Amino acid sequence: MKVFGVVGWKNAGKTTLMERLVAEITRRGVSVSTVKHAHHAFDVDHQGKDSWRHRQAGAQEVLVCSGARWALMHELRAAQEPPLSELLAKLAPVDLILVEGYKRDAHPKIEAHRVETGAALLAREDPTVRAVAANAVLADLSVPCFDLDNIPAIADFVLEETGLR
What is the pLDDT of residues 106-124, one digit of tens each? Predict the structure, then answer.
């Protein structure tokens, strides 16, 4: 499986770029899964629901299944957050895994950037950032820069970089 990341600082447009890339790349017939890093605790079930009650009771893992989907929740219970490589190994095989976040990991990435955030460009310091998708023209970059809304061109780049084009 090929892995390619979308990184950037807060409010840079990472999630929108991910959503649009998944739609564009899957439309081209490439199977895609995603991994999203969160910097805070989160829940995928709701207080009072059976799966929530199982977790609260101390279950290490809770698998919920219906005729439409299944989801596996794993409680770390004070254990260290697993590395990205360990999480990727848990996914079913697909052509491409798009990763949102994990900006310090070694996989290739594109940086989402909105100039109005005032954030520094990761691409200037991080060789794993292979391109930037920005909402303005950026000067003095050593990597390609795409318009943040030019999803077909960004998808072409990702597929070329991963050998899927």
Answer: 999 999 999 999 999 999 9
